């Protein structure tokens, strides 16, 4: 599945266009490598997503083409969520 679609279906990012924009700016890594929105993801991949002052690291546990909001969180496991210091 494409990275941007996974992020939208799993509801990590609400809109696919936003997921595409973040990925294309180089703020998403798949297994520690820069990813584009069109990159394919598979079960077991580790995603590191930079949201401005917050970084979310998740592991993909399953791929589902469409899902209900209540089931979306089952598609990934949060490994780490960290906030950057605002002392820049």
List keywords for this structure.
Structural Genomics Hypothetical 15.5 Kd Protein In mrcA-pckA Intergenic Region, Chain A, globular, S4_RNA-bd_sf, alpha+beta, RQC P-site tRNA stabilizing factor, stress response, RNA-binding, 88 residues, 3 helices, 5 strands
Which sequence of SSEs, written as H and E, runs from N to C?
Answer: HHEEEEHE
Structural class: alpha+beta
Percent strand equals 25-35%
The number of distinct helices, counting runs of at least 4 residues, comes to 3
Number of domains: 1
Within CATH, the superfamily carries the name RNA-binding S4 domain
Radius of gyration: 12 Å
Kindly state the number of beta strands.
5
How are the strands of the biggest sheet laid out side by side? 2-1-3-4-5
**Mean residue pLDDT:** 92
CATH architect. name:
Roll
Low-confidence stretches are none
> Which outline best applies?
globular
Biggest sheet layout: 5 strands, antiparallel
Explained architecture:
The chain is of the alpha+beta class. The protein has a single domain (3-83), classed as RNA-binding S4 domain (Structural Genomics Hypothetical 15.5 Kd Protein In mrcA-pckA Intergenic Region, Chain A). Helix content is 23%, strand content 30%. It has helices at residues 3-9, 16-24, 69-72; strands at 28-30, 33-34, 46-51, 54-60, 76-83. Strands 2-1-3-4-5 form a 5-stranded antiparallel beta sheet. A hairpin with a 2-residue loop joins strand 3 and strand 4. The longest helix has 9 residues, at 16-24. The mean pLDDT is 92. Belongs to the RqcP family.
Short synopsis of the structure:
Belongs to the RqcP family. With 88 residues, the chain is of the alpha+beta class.
